Amino acid sequence: MMMVETAEGFDIERVERWIAKHVPQLVLPLQWKRLAGGHSNLTYHLQSANGEQVVIRRPPMGKLLPKAHDMSREWALISALGESNVPVPKALAFCDDLDIIGVHFYVMEFVEGRPLYSISDTEEWIPADRREALAYSFIDTLAELHSLDPGKIGLGGLGKKTEYIARQVRTWYRSWTASAEPAQFDDPRAHDLQAYFMANIPEQGDARIVHGDFGLHNCLIGAEQSVVAVLDWEISTLGDPLADLAYALNPWPAVDEPVVIVDDAATRAVGMPNRRTLAARYATRTGRDLSNLNYYVGFNFWKSAAIMHGVYARYVAGQKSADDQDLDAWRTRIENCLTAAAHAVDAHRNNS
Question: 209 and 233 in contact (C-beta within 8 Å)?
Fold first, then answer.
């Protein structure tokens, strides 16, 4: 995190004038520091002359897809969730005046903590005897999110409430089929799995807020080794909470996993509990029936394969520079995701 005199995507002078009017507790001038991460959204830590600290966030530069990097969605979520027991940074001010920097941006509270991306992050930040407690804080936070009634906190219009899995399967299957030719790579398991998912969709139940990318990389872990803030709400919507749960569980070790997708994941440090333990705790906290959990685990591994397949296709087709990429490793990881998906589907089929 380096101090900067210019900030990509921000006109510092104009933004500071706007901040002086809308976040009056900050005393100018501000010190700007670029923060890493955040789904390529441009995120800066600001410290005022009186020591107050906040974070400012805007979309990346360049042309964006219509619904990508939606700052108003993130703002709506952290504003609403700020009144709940789900830990989020306090929402401070939102700018919808495109005359300031040409896009929406917002200012939120700075929360002291750090995300975990790798085993080494976990080993450095979380003592071995506190890793189980961290894992429980992680899954309890997700359970709390899924216990909220979106309509009661003003988020009933966040997205469609029905057919979440069907819509997701259709979207990512289109991605897979569209990418097969430019990727010069297809796998019959992708098609077989899609057919199984569409034919065996579990009953969804009440729609809940699904984060969409809930993981230790999108949580700030505080000094007490617990989740003190959940970040990156830009793809959140309403849908099936068990799909969100399975996505969150997939990076954690499993008793019978056929392959390890990311062997350096922060969840795989010594002392971390396995998926089964966390799933049982979630079930206890929420009262939800997890008899179809393997379906959702398989779906999420298949979806991950489709996402990576699309990126791989752009590398192979020359639409993205592959100079620093190991394309064989990309292909292996896609195949491993399909292997993990097929393994989970077999388990679901055998238990049905």
Answer: no
Give pLDDT tens digits for 97-127: 999 999 999 999 999 999 999 999 999 999 9
Tell me phi and psi for residue 66, to 5 degrees.
-55, -40
The Cα 37–Cα 147 span in angstroms is 28
Nearest to 1 by CA among 30, 37, 51, 40: 37
Which residues make Cβ contacts (< 8 Å) with residue 330, sequence separation at least 6?
308, 311, 312, 315
Q: Is the domain 3-109 a CATH 3.30.200.20 member?
A: yes
Q: Which of 52, 59, 43 is nearest to 4 (CA)?
A: 43
Residue 16 CA: distances (Å) to CA of 47, 98, 105, 107, 109: 12, 15, 13, 11, 16
Residue 200: closest CA among 296, 320, 134, 91: 296
What does the pLDDT read at residue 5?
76
DSSP letter string, 126-166: S-GGGHHHHHHHHHHHHHHHHHS-GGGGT-TTSS--S-HHH
One of 3.40.630.10, 3.90.1200.10, 3.40.630.30, 3.40.50.10860 is the CATH number of 119-351, namely 3.90.1200.10
Does the pTM of the predicted model rise above 0.70? yes
* Measured torsion, CA atoms of residues 94, 100, 101, 105, in degrees rounded to the nearest 10: 0
The span from the CA of 54 to the CA of 323, in Å, is 37
| Domain map (residue ranges) of the chain | 3-109, 119-351
Residue whose entry in the numeric block shows the structure tokens 């990126």: 311
Stretch 329-342: mean pLDDT, rounded? 97
- Nearest-angstrom CA–CA distance, 76 and 237: 11
Reported as a single tens digit per residue, the pLDDT across 188-240 is: 999 999 999 999 999 999 999 999 999 999 999 999 999 999 999 999 999 99
